[in-house]
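Example complex used in Figure S2.
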Amino acid sequence: MDARRSSRAVSDPKVRHVGFFTPNAPPLPSRTQSGPPAAGSPPLSESPASNSFSPVMIPPPRHLSDVAERTAAVPVPDSAYRRTAAGDHVPVGSYNPSESLLGTSPVASPSSVAGDGELEFSGESSASWHRWRDSGKFASSFPSGGFELTMAKGSENSATKGKNLAAASNAKKPLDVPEKSGGVVTEVQNELQPTSKPLKAKSTKAERRALQEAQRAAKAATKEGSKSATVSRGVAPSKPVKQPSQRKDASSVAPSVAASEKKGGDRAPEKERKKDVPPPRMQFDDKNRVEKAKKRSVFHQTEARNRVELFRHLPQYEHGTQLPDLESKFFQLEPMHPAIYKVGLQYLAGDICGGNGRCVAMLKAFEEVIRDYSTPPEKALSRDLTAKISSYVSFFTECRPISISMGNAIRFIKSRIAKLPLFLSESEAKAALCADINSFINEKILLADRVIVKHAASKVKDGDVLLTYGSSCVVEMILLHAHELGKQFRVVIVDSRPKFEGQALLCRLVAKGLSCTYTHINAVSYVMHEVTKVLLGAASVLSNGTVYSRVGTASVAMVAHAFCVPVLICCEAYKFHERVQLDSICSNELGDTDAIAKVPGRMDVNYLENLAKKENLQLLNLMYDATPSDYVSMIITDYGMIPPTSVPVIVREYRRTQLWL
Amino acid sequence: MWRRSASFILDNQQRRKDVASSSKPESISLSPPQLSSMADAFQNPNSSNPKNSAYYQTRAAHHGVVTSDWLAQAQAAVGRPPDDQASSEPEVPAAAAAASEPGRPFCVIDEFNNWRKQPDLAEAVAAIRALATVIRSSEATTMMELEIELKKASDSLKSWDTTSISLTAGCDLFTRYVTRTSALEYEDFNSAKSRLIERAEKFGEISYKARRIIAMVSQDFIFDGCTILVHGFSRVVLEVLKTAAQSKKLFRVFCTEGRPDRTGLRLSNELAKLDVPVKLLIDSAVAYTMDEVDMVFVGADGVVESGGIINMMGTYQIALVAHSMNKPVYVAAESYKFARLYPLDQKDMAPALRPIDFGVPIPSKVEVERSARDYTPPQYLTLLFTDLGVLTPSVVSDELIQLYL
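Predicted assembly (1066 residues):
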């Protein structure tokens, strides 16, 4: 095992850039390369050093894949926001900052950099400014932007460190940063780049503002007064505290135009990554960031040691260690609302599961929070509340990575908060938000389920044999409804270890008098030949038609496809997501490995008991998988029955009618 | 391959010179003799009809019925299409349906039947026209009343023939298109009503012109020297082929026989009138001839939400054969045939049954599959030619969602 790993590390170093790392190999060769020279050498000689890790070939895959992966992995991606908010330059998207600046990174001379800048920011400088803002840095001052991630970060700081202090700075930050930093930046700009063209000046200004904003956000928790320092110099000392290797080369911003341009480019995505990525989708193979996240987090989860190589970017914790810790902290967690705390613990303990259940529980908790909320003095409700909710969301993600359905619901709440009319009084605003949340639960979840049940029941014919996998509440409702309608059909429930969710479903169905067959997924190819339809639930449907669902769904769908049995996916439209995902590796959730290592109730079957701590044993308990759209015959949503190819249309319509109301 | 052969050139010269025996030489050169003689027999019905008609006469004598379809076919084959309507929806016992309808002062069914008397007017277009008349002659004084009236009329039209997909879809689309306008909100009733009438007229016009648009749109896909396999009789496909022939494109057509309606015979007859080289195949010879075919052209009874089509029995197997031989399958269908249906498999739709005569008495124990249509899933279709443009199957659902959501 070790031999294989090391050999792989040697033979194919590029693999590691994608984000899957080997533990034995030196972590992040690009970093270590750039780190030492940056630490020891003067800033100017450092730019070749950074060149060495950014020749044309290597970094683009790394950065792009990182960025792509991140946008793919973020459960609440704001790419749609960005795209729509950016308006006229739709194709630019959110990837571009890193892309364009990577293009400039190998270039060392100021003139060519200027040329590049001109190329990139040709014409619509305001638009490019918009894009910079959109890509997450100024998000907090940008009401319709993807602010929540930034705020999640910022307010997380607040949660751990100086609570009241940070909260204050948090709310103040978006207000005072723009004008101040704008003034300072232009000043510095002028003295730094006398020859550069105005267009380019705009771009660097944007970068600098973004940069400054980020630094400020990072520092806000510790030092509030430091924001008045000059842009590049003042910030430099604080950098090494955070990320030693990358911060070093960032300290060379001021001296040369080329370097600043390049560094700004290199750091912008880096910073964006830092600020944007919410903990759940953090790349957990990045040690620096994991360390930082640990410092911030409300409670500490012990990470499992042996993780499967391909899934190192996902968090895996030893289960059962956090509850006492959290309980002991119960009275210290002042800003945490008890409702939030309760729901978070329920997530953690697994008491609430299922996409709808978790989403509804979260929304109800938020409703309580909003009801009990009162705006602190000298703050705006919309900003403070958004920050609060972001901090709660990050708490939830620490308990368990949030699902896509929750992500969409959070997005909905935040857009509602952002769109609150300014003239509303606090109580009115709170009432409006509560009504919004309630109508979301009613219309998008409960009513949607009813519509889905109606549609799906029309597809159930007499004599059908319906197969379902695991336990989906919508599928259960469909089966019960069809039974109530008096249709004669049989149900095959396929179940799997370790959750055995199907057994609960089986009990409920049998109690209602349905005739059921229960089997495990090992036998699915055996039972499939008598099945006439397969009904499956989904955690999400992605816009390429891929169905993201409980692990094992893909196998069932593929077997059904091989037997020419139509596969019906039942999924509410609010779970749809514009992300495209081709496999189930880049974004997934790792469950408790003990669950698959142990057989409950069979003390004699304990072959793995002594092996659990072995270095060369890696246990993998995936929670989700992705079913390609080829295996899906139909998706039943609240908008009717659609083919998997039409998911993007629904996503588009849904966004327009729901979120941008 | 055919276009490269010398016989193609030869055929053309022959065709130009000798109009009457246009299809003869190539059918001889390309097909087994007995088949060509049969094709000849149907293409020149006046000369060699007796043999076949005798067969059908015995059949009629055995069963005591002469199917109206066949009479229509025979008459059509003789040369003059007397009633397009009878064969456009042969599975509907028109007389019975007409008898069952109630007599009212203004009856949308009467209006519908009036419109249907026009040859070449599709059933759905007739329904759309009839519904437009409903709006115009309505005495409602409020919008709600008018809408209810419209809904009633469209319901009665739909129940007039529940198996016809295009009728149902056309009615639905009409109500959807007409009533879904912001004009209803801020104008007073009369102007809103006139707006509705305007939209109704527009929709009727669009539907009426649809066939023409499809014919224009699909011309790019017919190239000189291609061989087109056609299944069943579809007026859209005929229009497409007619337009292609009129624009001096050189192509030939294989017509399937289209049992039990023998709709292929009628199409081949129409095509022969246009001087298009045409060859008749029996339905089971599709796979046999598929290697010569460049593309498959079919019409559709209905286009369903998955992007698949519901069409005359046999379309599915032709699409399967074409798919396995990598031949493109093109569907010509007007957009008023887009239906909010989603069949999962062949049995998952309202069956349209029809009597089938096998020529000999069938023992009562033997079951007969009498379904008239099958469902072709979207993965076997290449493109859909509609009046909305040339669409891939997946766009159908997008269009439907746009319209209905």
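The CA atoms of residues 67 and 274 of chain A lie 11 Å apart. Residues 287-444 of chain A form a domain with the Four Helix Bundle (Hemerythrin (Met), subunit A) fold (CATH 1.20.120.420).
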